[in-house]
Sugar ABC transporter permease
Amino acid sequence: MTDTAVAGAIPRAVRRPARKASASRAGLYAVLVLAALFFAIPLLIVLSTSLKPMDEIREGSIFALPMAPTLEPWSKAWLSACTGLFCDGLHVGFWNSVRILVPSVILSVLAGALNGYALAQWRFRHADKILTALMLGAFIPYQVILYPLVKIFAGMGLYGTLPGIVLIHVIFGLPTLTLIFRNFYAGIPEELVKAARVDGAGFFRIFLQIMLPMSVNILMVALILQVTGIWNDYLLGYIFAGRENLPMTVQLNNIVNTTTGTIEYNVNMAATVLTALPPLLVYFLSGRYFVRGIASGAVKG
């Protein structure tokens, strides 16, 4: 083969993988765009409907953009929409959800981290049995044990109270969080803990001064999981929170399912977006930490 033939053959051999790579990349982008449209179109319809006056909703198409946008449905959903017998809007449920969310997230994440650290780094009797029990608790549907819990909490005087619903969320979040933190701490060398013990550090000092500072990414994973799970919860809040502490999701259901008078679809859509905004903002602001935490061992082990 002459030098000219060799020189001419090299570009053709190089071009083929490049063409295959560009075709596969185009196919990947097409799939991603279709997936984004699949999830974005319902959201755009909800946002568009929430900005339309009722006359425009009755006369126009569901896909039509608002011709005369208005924020009045948002104001009504927040301040004066009827959630049953009371017409105080969603802001009451929002603050109820915040009062439930903050202590529930803090207590459940700290308890899960403490349990995971103990199970991973401190060997004690029956540790494997405790881990097995927690795994069973993570996969048992909580609907199965709702009635016994109602009876237990009623006997303790916690049913229908704010401490009661906080304790419920801590209990149900503990198995999954313990497994997440246990898998993460199991990847930390035992020599680090042993060296701290030699220096005189005890259980809680090692946990607070060594383990927690190393757990920023996995803590963000736990926080995102708990914030989204607790904020979006409907059933537990409806059953255990009590009439004075109903969360935002329960009040949203009351607004949407109101059967008296005219159904205000724009107010319903605005209330839906308002209820979904807090967990969405949490995820968008801390999503990169979620990915880092997953990569650093959240689902490993």
